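Homework help board

Subject: predicted structure for assignment chain

Our instructor gave us this sequence and asked us to write out the predicted structure in token form, then describe one feature. I got the tokens but I'm not sure how to describe them. Can anyone check?
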Amino acid sequence: MGFRAWLIAHRRHLAISLSGLTLAAIVVVSVNEVGIESDPSFAPGRGTAGPADRGAPAKSALRPVPHGVEGGDKVKKCSVQAAAPADIGEWKTASDFAGGEALLREASDRLSKRGSSYDRALLAFLAMVSAGNRAQMELLAKRPDCIESDDCRNQSFSAAERAGREYREALVSIALASNRGDVYGFAFSACRSIYKSPSQGPCDRLSAEQWARLEPENAIPWLYVADAANRRGDLNNRNEAMFRASIARSSDSHASAFQGLLRSQEFQDQSLEIQGALDLACGMAIFIDVPPYQEVFQYCSSNAVKDPNRHQVCDDLANMLTERSDSLVSMSIGAKLAERVGWPPEKVSALRNRKDAIMEMVSTRAPTDSWSCEGLRSYHSWTAEFLRDGELSMYRRLVEASGQSEAELARHWRERQQRRADLANSAEGDAKP
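My token output:
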């Protein structure tokens, strides 16, 4: 019950992607790595390392959780070969998150002097999330009714912030000293999440403008620049930032950054439960903050796109989000924008079919018992695919393997959603006196 409550409390952060099902990559799995660029057993992350980031060769970052560390010397049911598929209950416990946190802390300590900024930033980012998860699970274990109380939910977020503070501040320090856009983006996202300090601190030294300078071909930092400029009433800089976003080569969330962790032998040596806790930490790290897409719709309002120049920028934004983004949520937003700027109906319909076909595949692939060992293995497998291929590529391959067209799958999804709506309306009507 505790973990279910924790998931509900995090629905804003987890269900970022359409109806919560990209979370089929977080809760129906999760995500990513702690890569070691200089070790061939780890996949290098995207982005360009500057001279200051090229440290001495580092050995594998992760080692098995030592005995004596919470979670390290426990017998884990899912790791026992004879465990029945449903022989588990709730595998995601505070001790599993603590085991993952200990693993990341130990690796971070070893790399503090010789590791690249990229490696150290990923470790700090994941350790922050793992520490926060552990703190929230500890609170929920004491207060199983926490989800019903606004005050308790706020306490859980505060507990996560306190637990992750040292890692967040370390991440910010790494980002400020690095010339890597992806590293800076990790810190920027962490500082905008529930891990943001309620008082002034190192996060205040980060800016969207600096992120965009470090990663000018990525649309995401430009959206943050536009949002900040709009809040200041600086429409000239807002317009320039939206233009830069529209011509960017990609909308890159850097989700692939974590895949080396899942491929490392050290990760495979952990119990399946600790691997699952780290999967979840990776997923939350990727989806920890949502870019300010509301700025896109405000800038490209129905009235605004009547201006030819604005219409061109918004048309380019729709192209960028549908063709050069790496997430389902950005593609879906691009499809809505495409309709607003007047793309041909058949092209808009094809985009909608693609999105709904993906939703149908995700919903039907989810395990029947999410809390079983089999469910945990399914999450872990999905995570590996997500990181290896990217979210949209993974989903498109699932659609192709189904043997059905996108239009057919989309129709199944819409029919399913209509039946759910009809049942909800019927139940609501029965409840009325």
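Reply (TA_rk): Your tokens look well-formed. For the description, you could write something like this. Residues 1-76, 80-92 have pLDDT under 50 and may be disordered. That's the kind of observation they're looking for.
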